[in-house]
Amino acid sequence: MPGNEAGKVGFGQDLIWRLESVAFAGFIGLMRLIGLEAASNLGGWLLRTLGPRVSTHRIVMRNLRIAFPDMDATERERLARDQWEQTGRTFAETAVMDQLTPASGRIDIVGAERLEAIRLGGRPVVFVSGHMANIETMAAVLVASGVPVQVTYRAANNPYVDAQIRAARARYGVKLFAPKGGDGARELLAGMGRGESVALMNDQKFSEGPEVSFFAQPVNAAPGPTRLALRFGTVIQPMSVVRLPGVRFRVTAHEPIEVVSTGDRQADIARGVQAITTFIEDRVREHPVDWFWVHRRWPDRVYAALASDRSASSRA
After folding, report:
1. In contact, 189 and 53? CB cutoff 8 Å
2. For residue 123, how many other CB atoms are within 10 A of its CB?
């Protein structure tokens, strides 16, 4: 059983996982059969149609109200539908990512000279980004650049599905690493000690870490990327992905973030975390339709305040 999970779950749970795995394999097979553009179009149509009807749509709308309080309600609703289409396209494209590499001609790379300098320099860096457009294209660009890098990800709860995800990504050369606890952190450190860079997503809810500002609201953000940069005396290399018409993408390696060590470690980490968070906010503001709006990014108190404001407005 993948991930050595056999002794940790009962027969019923294992059966459910296996059935889910069969369904997922069927989906992968269908997407590969119909091809990249048809798969992208189908996935986009399905979620644009179904997304607004599921309970998660309420999270999307709340997030949009927090981020864009002055946006017209009609415009927020349009943006919500558009982001569902983007999410559906990305999900379907995952099955055929071996057809979405730089060699396919579908990815424009901006700042390729920065990636080349990293490759030639031999010093590891900390790549950071957010869940924007199809983030798999960013991984594909890093692999094609020749930079030794560990692409970290959160493993799927279903180990059989997770094995299929890893196999799908391996088709275009990505070797994934899912760090867990202290052992995972030690493996990351060991990799960077060998000169391997690491790529991390830094825009999801984090219950600990420094409190920083994101769309003028407080969030806790993961300090890991900044800590790694400080430990190895290296830079944080921000990356972004933008979806273009015709199942095309633009991947950009932006100006590096220099993390300065002043002797006040906690303050240094907080500044680095805010710099990363500001970078992600700027990219979301530029292309809001590309961001993954379906997760609860802000702490519960921000959502509670939003509900309270709405209730007060309805009584006025």
Report:
1. no
2. 14
pTM of model > 0.85: yes
Strand partners, 108: 250
Residue 175 has pLDDT above 90, yes or no: no
Axis crossing angle, helix 73-93 with helix 56-67, rounded to the nearest 10: 120
Amino acid at position 295, single letter: H
CA 104 to CA 160: how far, in whole Å?
A: 29
Cα separation, 86 vs 294, in Å, equals: 12
Query: pLDDT band for position 98 (50/70/90)?
Result: confident
Q: Residue 316's pLDDT band (boundaries 50, 70, 90)?
A: very low
Structure tokens at 148: 């030794």
Say which residue the tokens 């509900």 belong to. Answer: 307
- Answer whether residue 173 shows pLDDT above 80: no
Average pLDDT, the chain: 90
Tokens, residue 146:
């020749």
Structure letter (DSSP) for residue 155: P
Say how far residue 150 (Cα) sits from the centre of its chain.
15
Helices (H) and strands (E) in the chain, counts: 11, 9
Would you say 88 and 46 are in contact if contact means Cβ atoms under 8 Å apart?
Answer: yes
Among 91-100, 177-186, 197-206, 223-232, the range of highest mean pLDDT: 223-232
Distance between CA 59 and CA 303 in Å, rounded? 9
- Contact between 245 and 108 under an 8 Å Cβ cutoff? The reply is no
